[in-house]
């Protein structure tokens, strides 16, 4: 049996998963962007009534929720890569990563509130 | 090879004068991809959520949320975020192409980087002109 240490003695082994998830989440966001622009152009711009109606549709809400999950996941992988390159002291990097995670969770909660918390 | 014949690791020259360093175009695209990504995370997401939340509250709130977008500062921020989003998206598509070994040689990688920089600005200006 080949242990992980024999394949590679270093690293935390999440690189390939990050690489793939960064691309998959990017494609999800591109699809959403194209659909959203299509809807807006189809309406020829959105006034309040059309805007409100769009965000009242369950399919659109769920699609937007999927977008937000992809976006926050994508942001986490990207920002952590930046921190790994520039925030060298372990304590500083850990503090910044915790701050980023808190911000991501806050964005997520806020998104749910925007999508389902309306009157 | 005997140990004595092996090339000895010598200290490598380090040249990181940020003023004098001249980045090749693909490197400019790479660092801008990071900078736009960080800005979209720190500024883009909260502004977008704030705008959507306010604009959905009522017809009056919709008008009120639109109003800052008509000020010079609002237009500048919107233009910056639009360009940042477009650039980040296009740089991501270029990245996907490179992953598939499309345009991976030096010459096409350089020209695609130049096209990307110009195209992102042209598209952002076109959207700005269309909006205003």
Structural write-up:
The complex is a heterodimer of chains A (119) and B (132). By secondary structure, chain A is mainly α. Chain A contains five helices and no strands. Chain A has a single domain (13-116), classed as Fumarate reductase/succinate dehydrogenase, transmembrane subunit (3 helical TM bundles of succinate and fumarate reductases), CATH 1.20.1300.10. Chain A has helices at residues 4-7, 15-43, 48-56, 58-86, 90-116. In chain A, α2 crosses α4 and α4 packs antiparallel against α5. The longest helix of chain A has 29 residues, at 15-43. The model of chain A has no long low-confidence stretch (mean pLDDT 91). Chain B has 132 residues and is mostly helical. Chain B has four helices and no strands. Chain B has helices at 25-57, 59-66, 72-99, 106-131. In chain B, α1 (25-57) crosses α3 (72-99). The longest helix of chain B has 33 residues, at 25-57. The model of chain B has no long low-confidence stretch (mean pLDDT 90). At the A-B interface, α2, α3, α4 and α5 of A face α1, α2 and α3 of B.
